From TrEMBL:
<dbReference type="Pfam" id="PF00278">
    <property type="entry name" value="Orn_DAP_Arg_deC"/>
</dbReference>
<protein>
    <recommendedName>
        <fullName>ornithine decarboxylase</fullName>
        <ecNumber>4.1.1.17</ecNumber>
    </recommendedName>
</protein>
<dbReference type="InterPro" id="IPR022653">
    <property type="entry name" value="De-COase2_pyr-phos_BS"/>
</dbReference>
<dbReference type="Pfam" id="PF02784">
    <property type="entry name" value="Orn_Arg_deC_N"/>
</dbReference>
<dbReference type="InterPro" id="IPR009006">
    <property type="entry name" value="Ala_racemase/Decarboxylase_C"/>
</dbReference>
<comment type="pathway">
    <text>Amine and polyamine biosynthesis; putrescine biosynthesis via L-ornithine pathway; putrescine from L-ornithine: step 1/1.</text>
</comment>
<dbReference type="InterPro" id="IPR029066">
    <property type="entry name" value="PLP-binding_barrel"/>
</dbReference>
<dbReference type="InterPro" id="IPR022644">
    <property type="entry name" value="De-COase2_N"/>
</dbReference>
<keyword id="KW-0456">Lyase</keyword>
<keyword id="KW-0663">Pyridoxal phosphate</keyword>
<dbReference type="InterPro" id="IPR002433">
    <property type="entry name" value="Orn_de-COase"/>
</dbReference>
<dbReference type="InterPro" id="IPR022643">
    <property type="entry name" value="De-COase2_C"/>
</dbReference>
<dbReference type="InterPro" id="IPR022657">
    <property type="entry name" value="De-COase2_CS"/>
</dbReference>
<dbReference type="InterPro" id="IPR000183">
    <property type="entry name" value="Orn/DAP/Arg_de-COase"/>
</dbReference>
<feature type="domain" description="Orn/DAP/Arg decarboxylase 2 N-terminal">
    <location>
        <begin position="35"/>
        <end position="261"/>
    </location>
</feature>
<comment type="similarity">
    <text>Belongs to the Orn/Lys/Arg decarboxylase class-II family.</text>
</comment>
<feature type="domain" description="Orn/DAP/Arg decarboxylase 2 C-terminal">
    <location>
        <begin position="265"/>
        <end position="346"/>
    </location>
</feature>
Amino acid sequence: MHKHHSALGLAIAHRPVQPVTLIRPHAASRAARFFVEKFPGRSMYAVKANPSPELIRVLWESGITHFDVASIAEVRLVARTLPEATLCFMHPVKAEEAIAEAYFTHGVRVFSLDSLEELDKIMRATNGAADLTLCVRIRVSSDLSKLSLASKFGAGPGETKALLIAARQAADALGICFHVGSQAMSPDAYAQAMERVRTAIVEAGVTVDVVDVGGGFPSSYPGMEPPPLERYFATIHRAFESLPVSYSSELWCEPGRALCAEYSSLIVRVERRRGDELYINDGAYGALFDAAHIGWRFPVRLLREPESHAKPVEYSFYGPTCDDLDHMAGPFELPADVRAGDYIEIGMLGAYGSAMRTAFNGFGSGETIEVADEPMTSLYESAPERELPANVVTL
Ligand SMILES: *Cc1c(COP(=O)(O)O)cnc(C)c1O
């Protein structure tokens, strides 16, 4: 892997023709240490947000030992990358073959479910195993989050009691889990969900060993600056302490976005300007899926020296494919004098960015380069810029 000290230095010195993915292991490491030290329970990384093996290793080295996996390919990937990691299979609808391979080949013991059919499937696939931790996923509101996860999964109020009782009988340890939706903009999302957990426990009258508050922890994007994560942790801790669970029960969370959003960004080149529309060399089929399809806004900055002092203007972007859908409405704020040949850094693409990349229309390859400068925004306390060690190859 090539390394460079900064995004700006790289763009100026190398004028890359292809988009370049920048990775910042120090940012992912800082996020992981933050969760490990401050979340009042166990933090596991939701691999789907960014399945890069380099990232998974950085998180492991920073104290994340548990990984939320959702497919057999993710199980195999983490098992291969980190043989000592603990895997939790948290997709509530799994293939029976995937459950069997996870259990018998990879030692997975934690599974989530949201129906009696899935419970039967898990028991069949594991030959009636007696050492399972079964986490019942309940449906909670996504109203306080930017991306809903409220329709597809989760047992409803009418189904939860029977499912908890049945899972209690089958499980060695019983958990309740939920997901408040991605990018939850208020800690209240978790407080409300924990009330649902309380009702479920009281109605079913079961002993619960694990409460898993899922993902949804936010990152910082233009127009979406969330409260500090400490407030989320305090709210969750308070709610957990007041639940009717045993003294030895555990609190878990499954952050995806919050652990990796700051890990990576992208350098793109402007190939053409048409009014306030910039034609750039990555887009909807590359790392900008969310910018195109759900109108997500990412921070941007012009990488030019000397720096432009033109007044800021709002732009939209077109990606490189021939498809009208390859359009990112933004708005993205950049100096008024942006022109073809300029380089732009698009930040906060570590979560749900590179994970979505395709090779459609012949675009999509490009280098990945490690940089040591700071991400464009950070939710974690900023550290001084690191010096690169002397043995680092600079491009
Ligand atoms: C996607 C997902 C996560 C991660 O969600 P973020 O919003 O990225 O934190 C965690 N758990 C489950 C079950 C998921 O599906």
